[in-house]
Amino acid sequence: MQDVFPRVRISTCGDKLPEEPALAAADRVTVELADGRKLESEPIAYPRGHFKKPVDASVLWGKFKDCTAPAMSEPQARALFEELQALEQLASPAHLGRASARPAAA
Questions:
Q1: What are phi and psi of 3, to 5 degrees?
Q2: For 72-89, what is each residue's pLDDT tens digit?
Q3: Distances (CA, A) of 46 to 33, 72, 92
Q4: CA neighbours within 13 Å on the CB side: how many for 79?
Q5: How far apart are CA 6 and CA 63, in angstroms?
Q6: pLDDT computed for residue 101 by the predictor
């Protein structure tokens, strides 16, 4: 991947989403092949994970598990993930993380 970075070019335009001006109207990816051909994506109006283009819990869990792996066991990460998924049902913010703080069962 490191060898690819110097060949990446980013260009921007001023078109913004009217309802969310922090986002471009659309993004697009173009790949130029060694033989000169160009492959271009369709316009991408909203990033993955945006409320108009949500990802399911299994995708979020995979990312969460990878990010927490250096700091906690998978069962602890799963417990914290489940708490975060039900955050609105938590009695108090002070309770967040209690399940993941318990030592993993042997």
A1: -70, -25
A2: 999 999 999 998 888 888
A3: 26, 32, 33
A4: 16
A5: 27
A6: 67
Tokens standing for residue 26: 């659309």
Neighbours of 50 (CB within 10 A): 13
Question: What are 40's two structure tokens?
Answer: 């271009």
Coil vs helix vs strand at 27: strand
**Cβ contacts of 77 within 8 Å, gap of 6 or more:** 64, 65, 68, 69, 100
Show the beta-strand stretches assigned E in 4-104: 16-17, 20-24, 30-32, 38-40
**Whole-model pTM?**
0.56
Rounded distance, CA 66 to CA 38, Å? 33
Tokens of 61: 């869990």
